[in-house]
Amino acid sequence: MSRTLVVGDIHGGLKALEQVLERAKVTDKDKLIFLGDYVDGWSESSQVINALIELSQKQECIFIKGNHDLYCEEWLAFGHKPEMWLLNGGVATMESYADYSDEEIDKHLEFFGQMHNYYTDEQNRLFIHAGYSSMHGPEKEMHSSNYRWDRTLWETAVALDTRIEKDSLQYPKRLLLFNEIFIGHTPTLHLGVSYPLNKANVWNIDTGAAFTGVVSIMDIDTKEFWQSEPLPGLYPDEKGRNP
Fold first, then answer.
1. Deepest of 93, 147, 224, 238, by most Cβ within 10 A of its Cβ?
2. Can you give the pTM of this predicted structure?
3. Domain boundaries along the sequence of the chain
4. Which part of the chain is the Calcineurin-like phosphoesterase domain (predicted)?
5. Which helix (H) or strand (E) holds 218?
6. Neighbouring residues of 91: CB distance < 8 A, sequence distance ≥ 6
7. Distance of alpha carbon 68 from alpha carbon 90, whole angstroms
């Protein structure tokens, strides 16, 4: 039976990606929705992109673009190297591309260019890297950067008083637009856990792969999930984005 599986942030951890796909027993009948941030952190960012391209040739995949993916794309295309990127995993990503030909880089740029800002399925479930600020939904967002940088959607869900009914005027309008919302971007480690976390109708699948956490994959219907080993153990000679 086919499943729809959502995958959280990867951050250059190819070993973790391969491990979690194996643990979830993913087949080519499964639909995979990736929430972004494929690069920046561990040493195999370009190799992660290669793996995702290969995967997309075997089965249905949706790729959302994260903020780190945009950084990488703009470096590959224009040579942009903002200090914030270099300090947050960009150096490791650049090193992973050291031996790539122009043809290989063009292939990756084509892949980055085909990524989505967000995706909505037939059951009115939204998949987006970070969030959106407009109470009218992501399609009405004034600043596209919010798709990749916003944290207020998740903070709103986390802080929401569960006693407030959905028909109350106090209930956040943004949370009423979709049946469920799946995000990455803000590690659940910030709330002291390393597993997919649900607040209101928002599911956060970023389980801290860039730091001391893991890569997670979840069945969006059953909510069963699988996880890799913690990334520092898979890359013992590296720091990732840890201090």
1. 93
2. 0.98
3. 4-234
4. 3-199
5. strand 216-219
6. none
7. 8
Return the ∠ at Cα 107 (arms to 104 and 109), rounded to 5°: 110
Question: Residue 70's pLDDT is what?
Answer: 98
From the first residue on, what is the mean pLDDT of each consecutive set of 10 residues in the chain (243 residues)? 96 98 98 98 98 98 98 98 98 98 98 98 98 97 97 98 96 98 98 98 98 98 98 98 96
pLDDT at 1: 80
| DSSP letters spanning 152-201 | HHHHHHHH--TTS-TTSTTS-GGGGS-SEEEE-SS-GGGGT--S-EEETT
Q: Which fold has domain 4-234?
A: Purple Acid Phosphatase; chain A, domain 2 (3.60.21)
Q: What is the DSSP string of 13-24?
A: -HHHHHHHHHHT
